[in-house]
Design a protein that fits this description.
The protein is α/β, with parallel strands linked by helices. It has 31 helices and 19 strands. It catalyses: a (3S)-3-hydroxyacyl-CoA + NAD(+) = a 3-oxoacyl-CoA + NADH + H(+).
C-alpha cells in the first residue's frame, strides 16, 4: 500500500507505529469512492496481519480530511436491489469496525473538513485530534438520507442522545471548538501542530498513560441508559425533530427512530439496524431529488467556473437606480468585496438605497455574521452619486430602474456614453427582451441581462440573459461578478420572461383559471403549501405585487399568445381595478397589517370573495388532487418547452432556476425531476386527462416522443 498512485498509503514510522494516509489521486479532495474504500479494506487487513503493530495514526494528504462519500455514485447505488445496498453498507461497516477493533490504539488527525463518511471513520478511532480550523459533521439528512456507516451508532455512545440527535438530524457542520465542547474531539491544536499532537497522543496511549480500551468500550456496547431514560430522551427528541423537519423530509425523524431502536443493542447489531433504516430512506423519492439537487448545484458551479476564463476583471461596479432593489444590489456587491457606485436622479432615492444596505448590514452584525468593522467597510464600499462623474472607472454597470422599456433604453444609452469602451452594461429586467433593450446601444455586444430576484440578499439566483448580440466576454464577466457576489448564475437565452418567469406564469395562469372555475383561492393556497411551496399562488401574487404581476402577465401573453393569453378578465384584473395591489398597499387577495417587527401580517378579507364573483364564470367540482395537477401541469410543461427551445442548455439549469428563483419544493427536485419521478409516460397521460382545460395543458410533440421511447430527463 505504499504506491504513490494509490488512494491509501501505509507509512511505517517508528516503534511499530503505522500511518494510514488517505490521499486520493487526481482529486482536489478526499472522498470515499469505490476505489478508496477498496484500498482502505486492503490497508486495514494489512494492519490486522501486522504482528509488530503498536499504534495507528489516521491522516489525510489533502487540505481537508475526507469530505464524505462520493455523491456521484449515490443515485446508481440507491437504484440497486435492497440486498445489494444492504451488503454495500455492511461491507463498509466491516472496514470501520475492523479498524476500531485493532488490538492497538488508533488516533486520527483531522484537518479541514471531515464530513459524512469522512467523519464516521473518525468516530471509529479511539482518539480524535482536530486542527483549530477543522469542521466536522454528518450532513446526510440534507440529502434525504442519514448516516449509514456507523454515525447513528457511535455518536450517541460518545456524546449522548440529545447532542447526537442535534448533530445528525440538523445535518450541520461544527467547528473544532464545538466538537471539543461536546466530547467528539479529544484535543484541538493549531493546524501546524496537528500531526505532532496526534502522534504525541498516540504514543501516550501506547505507553499506557491513556487507556484506549476504556475509550473504545462504550462504542461497542448498548447506550448506558435505562429503558425509561431512553424513552424519555428519544420521544422528546422525536417531537422536536418532526416539527422542525416537517412532513416532506422523512430522514431526520427516521434517524432518531433508528437511534432509539438500536440503543439497547451492541455495536454490530446496532449497525445492522442502521443499515436497514438507511435503505428505507435511500429508496425514497426525496433522497433521489435532494441528491439530484446537490449534483445539479455542482454542475452549475462547474459551468460558472468554466465561464470565468473569458471574464474581464471587475474591480468596481455601479448600479443605476437606488431604492430597495438598487440598495440590495449595492449591499450584495459591497459586502462581498466589490466596491460599487449607486446612482439615482433623486437624493431621497439614494438615501433609501443606503438605508436598505445599512439595514441589511446591521442585521448581519446582530446575527453575529459580521463585525461592526466589516459593516463599516462594506458601507464605505457603496458610494452614492447623482452624477456620472466617476463612471469612467467602472467595469460593470447594472441598470435597475423602473420596468419600462423606453425608460430603460434611455438610461442605458445615457450610461453607455459615460463609461469606458470595455465596460459591460447589464439590465436587471425581469421580463423585457434584452435584444430589444440593446437596440438603443452603440455597443450591444457589451450588454446582457443580469436579473436579480427579490429580496436580493436572500434569493440565490441570478439569471444572466444572453441577447442576440451579447458577446461571450460580456456573459462571462457578468457570470463572474454574480459568483463573486455569492450568487448562483444561470445563463439564459433571451425570450419573454426568460427562464423563471416564463415557467412561473403558466403556473399562475393555472391558478387564475381555477378561480375562474369557482375554486376558493384560499383552498388553492393551502393545497399548494401542503404540496411543498413556501407560499400559495395568491399569497405569492400579493408579495410580488398585483400591478407587477399584471404587467408581467401582459408581457408573457404578448410573447406566447397561443397559451398564455387569457380568455377574459381574471382575478388579477379584478384586484388591480379595485386598486388592491398586495402587500405594497396592504390589500390584495389578503389584507395586511404590520406585526411587532414591522413585517406584513396576512389576514383574510371577506370582501375579496365578493370582488371575485364577477370573474367566476364557471363552476367545477375539482378534487384536491385535481387542483394540484391543474397547478403543476402548466408549470412543468413550460419547463419542458424551455429546455426544448434551448433557453438553457440542461435540465439541471431548468430545475435549479426554479428552486433558487421561486422556491420550487426542493424535495421534489425541480419540474423536470418531478416529471421523471412520476414517469414521463405517466406525466403525458396525466396532461391528456386535463386536455380540455386548454393549451397550457398540451404536451409537446417531443415530450410525447420521449415518453414513447421510455426516456427520462436525467437518464
Amino acid at each position: 500500500m505504499s504506491d504513490e498512485g494509490n488512494a491509501i498509503r501505509l507509512i511505517v514510522l517508528d516503534e511499530g507505529i503505522v500511518e494510514l494516509n488517505i490521499n486520493l489521486p487526481d482529486s482536489s479532495v478526499n472522498k470515499f469512492n469505490r476505489q478508496t474504500l477498496a484500498e482502505l479494506r486492503q490497508a486495514v487487513d494489512q494492519l490486522k496481519a501486522n504482528a509488530e503493530l503498536r499504534g495507528v495514526l489516521l491522516s489525510s494528504g489533502k487540505e481537508a480530511f475526507v469530505v464524505g462519500a462520493d455523491i456521484t455514485e449515490f443515485l446508481g447505488m440507491f437504484r440497486e436491489p435492497d440486498e445489494v445496498l444492504l451488503n454495500s453498507n455492511r461491507a463498509v461497516n466491516r472496514i470501520f469496525s475492523d479498524l476500531e477493533d485493532l488490538p492497538v490504539p488508533t488516533v486520527v488527525a483531522i484537518n479541514g473538513l471531515a464530513l459524512g463518511g469522512g467523519f464516521e471513520v473518525c468516530l471509529s478511532c479511539d482518539f480524535r485530534v482536530l486542527a483549530s480550523n477543522a469542521k466536522v459533521g454528518l450532513p446526510e439528512t440534507k440529502l434525504g438520507i442519514f448516516p449509514g456507516w456507523g454515525g447513528t451508532v457511535r455518536l450517541p455512545r460518545l456524546i449522548g442522545v440529545d447532542n447526537s440527535v442535534e448533530w445528525i438530524a440538523a445535518g450541520k457542520e461544527h467547528t473544532a471548538e464545538a466538537a471539543l465542547k461536546v466530547g467528539v474531539a479529544d484535543a484541538v491544536v493549531a493546524p501546524e501542530l496537528l500531526r505532532e499532537a496526534a502522534l504525541d497522543l498516540l504514543k501516550r496511549a501506547i505507553s499506557g498513560e491513556l487507556d484506549y480500551k476504556a475509550r473504545r468500550k462504550p462504542k461497542l456496547e448498548p447506550l448506558k441508559l435505562s429503558i425509561m431514560e431512553q424513552m424519555l430522551a428519544f420521544e422528546s427528541c422525536k417531537a422536536v425533530v418532526a416539527q422542525q423537519a416537517g412532513p416532506h423530509y422523512p430522514a431526520p425523524l427516521e434517524s432518531v427512530k433508528v437511534m432509539q431502536k438500536a440503543a439497547a443493542l451492541d455495536r454490530d447489531k446496532a449497525l445492522e439496524v442502521e443499515a436497514l433504516g438507511f435503505i428505507k430512506v435511500a429508496k425514497t423519492t426525496v433522497a433521489s431529488s435532494l441528491v439530484g439537487l446537490f449534483l445539479n448545484d455542482q454542475e452549475l458551479k462547474r459551468k460558472g467556473k468554466a465561464a470565468e476564463k473569458l471574464a474581464h476583471p471587475v474591480k468596481e461596479a455601479a448600479v443605476l437606480g437606488a431604492g430597495i432593489m438598487g440598495g440590495g444590489i449595492a449591499y450584495q456587491s459591497a459586502s462581498k468585496g466589490t466596491p460599487i457606485l449607486m446612482k439615482d436622479i433623486r437624493e431621497e432615492a439614494l438615501q433609501l438605497g443606503l438605508k436598505e444596505a445599512a439595514k441589511l448590514l446591521t442585521q448581519k452584525v446582530e446575527r453575529g455574521r459580521a463585525t461592526p468593522e466589516e459593516m463599516a467597510k462594506a458601507l464605505s464600499g457603496i458610494r452614492p452619486t447623482l452624477s456620472y462623474g466617476d463612471f469612467g472607472h467602472t467595469d460593470v454597470v447594472i441598470e435597475a430602474v423602473v420596468e419600462n422599456p423606453k425608460v430603460k433604453q434611455a438610461v442605458l444609452a445615457e450610461a453607455e456614453g459615460q463609461v469606458k469602451e470595455g465596460t459591460i452594461l447589464a439590465s436587471n429586467t425581469s421580463t423585457i427582451s434584452i435584444s430589444l433593450l440593446a437596440q438603443a446601444l452603440k455597443r450591444p455586444e457589451h450588454f446582457c441581462g443580469m436579473h436579480f430576484f427579490n429580496p436580493v440578499h436572500r434569493m440565490p439566483l441570478v439569471e444572466v440573459i444572453r441577447g442576440e448580440k451579447s458577446s461571450p466576454e460580456a456573459i462571462a464577466t457578468v457570470v463572474a461578478l454574480a459568483r463573486k457576489m455569492d450568487k448562483t448564475p444561470i445563463v439564459v437565452n433571451d425570450c419573454p420572461g426568460f427562464l423563471v418567469n416564463r415557467i412561473l406564469f403558466p403556473y399562475l395562469g393555472g391558478f387564475t383559471q381555477l378561480v375562474r372555475n369557482g375554486v376558493d383561492f384560499q383552498r388553492v393556497d393551502k393545497l399548494m403549501e401542503r404540496f411543498g411551496w413556501p407560499m400559495g399562488p395568491a399569497y405569492l401574487l400579493d408579495v410580488v405585487g398585483i400591478d407587477t404581476a399584471v404587467h408581467a402577465r401582459d408581457v408573457m401573453a404578448a410573447g406566447f399568445p397561443d397559451r398564455m393569453q387569457e380568455s377574459g378578465p381574471s382575478a388579477l384584473d379584478a384586484l388591480y381595478q379595485a386598486k388592491r395591489l398586495g402587500q405594497k398597499n396592504g390589500q390584495g387577495f389578503y389584507a395586511y397589517s404590520a406585526d411587532k417587527r414591522g413585517k406584513p401580517l396576512k389576514s383574510v378579507d371577506a370582501s375579496v370573495t365578493v370582488l371575485l364573483e364577477p370573474v367566476m364564470t364557471a363552476r367545477h367540482d375539482w378534487t384536491d388532487e385535481d387542483i394540484i395537477h391543474l397547478m403543476m401541469l402548466p408549470l412543468c410543461l413550460e419547463a419542458v418547452r424551455c429546455l426544448e427551445d434551448g433557453i438553457v442548455e440542461t435540465a439541471a439549469e431548468v430545475d435549479m432556476g426554479l428552486i433558487y428563483g421561486i422556491g420550487f419544493p426542493p424535495f421534489h427536485g425541480g419540474a423536470l425531476r418531478y416529471i421523471d419521478t412520476l414517469g414521463v409516460a405517466n406525466f403525458v397521460a396525466l396532461a391528456d386527462r386535463y386536455a380540455a382545460q386548454g393549451p397550457l395543458y398540451q404536451p409537446t410533440a417531443k415530450l410525447r416522443e420521449r415518453a414513447a421511447a421510455g426516456q427520462s430527463f436525467y437518464g
